[in-house]
């Protein structure tokens, strides 16, 4: 694996190697020890979209491993492809740094950066996929549920980049995935077909959230209005009525189901405050694992 652009680009063995390395590094750092395998190396962090968890976790992970991170925001570099073509930026970075992390609007930007540079590229989010989040989610599920094979993950909400990455991750790790969305917000057929081609009948779509959470060991949600969709906010709030992960919905789920959210969470909309703070919520463990997975990716790709 030269870069980490999308879950479906990776082999199952590669993903297991990253997951195992993340668990090892988490244990190492929790014990107070350090692995400084990236000493002297520099990661360029390109941000078209702002982020709390992505910036902090990648910067801390790179520092933990002995390297340094260079934070580049839109005011510094412009929107990639508008001020300067991605292929030009990629070849300049190739001569300056040892790895690129990019959080962009268009997935094509990530692909173009990777095509034109010889250093590893990590997709920290694009409009099409969010693979770092999905790997942190898998680690969290494994920690709290044990063996991944045969587990059911119910995703309640917009069929977006997070849902797509989870569908691919479930296919790779032997889980089943169901996406419950209002009409018009479903995960696209191509993505479902891709997941089912990797593992037969592992991914499905429904418009009924009650059906989705039945027998689900993991119940996952995300914001109804992602960055860049602010003008649609009120329409989305109206359209997503009945799709909140709240006490009413969870009455139809197994009593020990784990609750996940990739954050930021808008309490009272896609998730209730009570569910967010319940003993079944692993949301903040999930957020912590972003650090451990990204530390593992940096070592795996740049070490």
Can you offer a commentary on this structure?
- This protein is α/β, with parallel strands linked by helices and 303 residues long.
- The protein has two domains: 7-130 and 289-302, Aspartate/ornithine carbamoyltransferase (Rossmann fold); 133-286, Rossmann fold (3-Layer(aba) Sandwich).
- The protein has 13 helices and nine strands.
- The protein has a five-stranded parallel sheet with strand order 7-6-5-8-9. Strands 2-1-3-4 form a four-stranded parallel sheet, with helices on both faces.
- Helix 7 (161-173) links the parallel strand 5 and strand 6 (176-180).
- Helix 4 crosses helix 5, helix 6 (131-145) crosses helix 7 and helix 7 (161-173) runs parallel beside helix 8 (189-198).
- The longest helix has 20 residues, at 283-302.
- The chain is globular, with a radius of gyration of 19 Å.
- The two termini are 12 Å apart.
- The model has no long low-confidence stretch (mean pLDDT 96).
Number of domains: 2
Unreliable stretches covering 5 or more consecutive residues: none
Shape: globular
Instruction: Identify the CATH architecture of the largest domain.
Output: 3-Layer(aba) Sandwich
SSE order: HEHEHHEHEHEHEHEHEHHEHH
Helix share bin: 40-55%
CATH topology of the largest domain, anyone? Rossmann fold
The amount of beta strand, in percent, is 5-15%
The CATH superfamily of the largest domain bears the name Aspartate/ornithine carbamoyltransferase
> Over the alpha carbons, how many angstroms does the gyration radius reach?
19 Å
The computed structural class is: alpha/beta
- N-C termini distance: 12 Å
């Amino acid at each position: 694996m030269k870069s980490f652009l999308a879950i479906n680009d990776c082999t199952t063995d590669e993903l297991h190697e990253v997951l195992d390395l993340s668990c090892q590094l988490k244990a190492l750092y929790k014990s107070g020890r350090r692995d400084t395998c990236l000493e002297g190396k520099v990661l360029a962090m390109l941000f078209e979209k702002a982020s709390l968890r992505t910036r902090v976790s990648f910067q801390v992970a790179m520092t933990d491993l002995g390297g340094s991170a260079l934070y580049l925001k839109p005011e510094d570099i412009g929107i990639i492809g508008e001020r300067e073509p991605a292929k030009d930026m990629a070849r300049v970075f190739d001569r300056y740094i040892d790895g690129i992390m990019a959080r962009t609007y268009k997935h094509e930007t990530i692909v173009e950066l990777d095509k034109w540079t010889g250093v590893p590229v990590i997709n920290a989010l694009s409009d099409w996929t969010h693979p770092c989040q999905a790997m942190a989610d898998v680690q969290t599920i494994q920690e709290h549920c044990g063996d991944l094979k045969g587990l059911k993950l119910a995703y309640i909400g917009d069929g977006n980049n997070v849902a797509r990455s989870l569908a691919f991750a479930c296919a790779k790790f032997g889980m089943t995935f169901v996406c419950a969305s209002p009409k018009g917000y479903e995960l696209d057929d191509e993505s479902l077909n891709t997941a089912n081609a990797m593992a037969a009948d592992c991914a499905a779509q429904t418009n009924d959230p009650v059906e989705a959470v039945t027998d689900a060991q993991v119940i996952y949600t995300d914001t109804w209005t992602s960055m860049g969709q602010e003008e649609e906010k009120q329409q989305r709030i109206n359209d997503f009525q009945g799709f909140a992960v709240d006490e009413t919905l969870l009455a139809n789920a197994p009593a020990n189901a784990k609750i996940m959210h990739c954050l930021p969470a808008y309490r009272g909309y896609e998730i209730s405050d009570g569910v967010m703070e319940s003993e079944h919520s692993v949301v903040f463990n999930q957020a912590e694992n972003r650090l451990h997975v990204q530390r593992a990716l940096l070592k795996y790709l740049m070490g």
